[in-house]
Structures are given as C-alpha cells and as structure tokens.
Amino acid sequence: MERSLELGNMTRVQEFVLLGLSTSPETREVLFAAFLTLYLLTLLENALIVFLVCSHSELHKPMYFFLGNLSCLEMCYVSVTMPSLLAGLWTGPCHVPFPACMTQLFFFIALICTECTLLASMACDRYVAICRPLHYPLLMRPQVCLGLAGTSWLGGLLVSVVKTVCIASLSYCGPNVLNHFFCDVSPLLNLSCTHVALTELVDFLSAIVILWGSLLVATASYVAIARAVLRMPSAAARRKAFSTCASHLVVVGIFYSATLFIYARPSRMEAMDLNKVLSVIYTVATPMCNPVIYCLRNREVQAAFRRTLHGSRG
Prior knowledge:
The chain crosses the membrane at residues 30-54, 66-90, 102-123, 144-172, 204-230, 242-264, 276-296. This is Olfactory receptor. This protein is mainly alpha-helical. The chain has helices spanning 2-9, 25-55, 62-91, 98-131, 136-139, 142-168, 185-191, 197-230, 235-263, 272-296, 299-313, and strands at 15-18, 94-97, 177-178. Helices cover 78% and strands 3% of the residues. The chain has a three-stranded mixed β-sheet.
C-alpha cells in the first residue's frame, strides 16, 4: 500500500532522452554521413526490388512474392529506427515524447516479428521448390502465399499490440535517459520503477513463439534441403540448388544471431553498448544487404533490371 502511494506521488516520465549511437562530437558528423548514405541506399535497393517484382510478369512467382514483401518490410523497418539514429547523430541526445516512443516501439516490434515469420515462410518455399518440385504449383499456389504473408503481417501486429501495451502500462518515474538510438524493449524495461516480471514473461514467451518458432521452421527446412541436395546425382544441379539457398542462409544466420542474442531471454540487458552494436546489425546492415544477397545477384532479377533499363532508354 505504501509502495503504491509512493509511486502515485511520483511524477510520471513525459519524455525520454535518447543518447544515440555516439556521444562524441568528432565522430557524429562522419557517422551521420555514413548512415544517411546507407539509409538512402537501403530505400533505393528495396524500392527497386518491389518495382521489378510488380512490373515484370516473369517475377510473379512465390519466391519473388515473398521477396517483394520482405523489401516492403525492410523499407518500413529501416524508416522506423533510422530517423532517430540520424537525429541523434546530427543534434546529439534527442528528446522523444512518451507517446512517440511507444509508437516507435510498436512499429519496431511488429516489423521484427513479421520479418521472422516471413523468413520462415521463404525457407518453406525453398523447401517445397527443391524437395517436392512436382507438388510446388499446388502447395505454393497464390492463395497459400497470400495466406502465409498475411499471417506474418497480422501476427506481427498482434504480438506488438500485446507487448507494447505491457511496456506502456509500466510506471516510469525517472531517470528518463535511454542509452540507445531508438526506443527498444530492454532499455525501457531498465528504466521502469515498477515490477516488470509480467512484462518480461510476455517478452520471453513471444520470443519463444516468434523467434525460436520461426528459426526452428527455417532450420528444419534448410536441413531437409541440404539432405535433398546431397542426394542429387548431377553436380550442376547441386550447385544450382546450393546457390539458391546459400544466400538465404547468410541472411537468416546474421538476422537470427543478433536478434536472438538480444531478445530471446527473460532478463533486462545491462550491456547497452553491445546492445546498440547488435541493433545496428539487424536494423541497418541487414535491410541494406538483403536486396543484394537475395535478389540483385539473381539472374532473373538481373534480366528484369536490364529490360527495365533498356525500356527507359528506348
């Protein structure tokens, strides 16, 4: 009772202060130019993929449908975190109102959960294409692809609603300084002045279901693919199948390694500098590299891009 009265008399935090990626004025200008370039490049690459997939009928296949969804997600994803990162590098520590912080947190959680399930769906698509090629048109028909993509987006939104409501309902009495470049789960839990056991449990359970669940599906798919590829009699067929999946494995490995290290445990992280470095990997590096790894090295995408260039010149 006394604890409740004490918390009730405290002033609720109205805004948070994001320290940003770097507090050194000497490095902020260089980092701002570098990350602004990466941001614009990421938007350009992913927008190009979406345009090519939508405008070329030969790319109207399940694999490219999922890649188009992933590129849309990456543009939204990087636009949620990068503006606050750039603002911190340009002006130094920036003040973010409480509602704006919770809004950023909501979209960030929704998009990262959606990406997990999309990557798992893409792994299933490759499994069916390589291990059950005769059934591929039936198993990956448009209705199934739309269902998988829609479930990924809707599931991410629902998980985010639950987690954001739990975090927003906590009491924040001060201090209000977040040692991060965006409003993330762990830094916010560290600032709460009330018990966070229930919120951490929700966070942990969602990590089990979304992160570990999608990783298990992706891992099982690629293990089955590897076994099928090794049994192929033709060396050329093995190389083609391996080249198709190797790029997917690189992205999945980088994304899940960084994400699981931060989120798949029910405790508040104290090593915030390490948290920020890992966050840069999956909020900046991965969205920029995905189009290159997944699509721009792909022959069909390259052919569609060349036709687009020739058409614009003509």
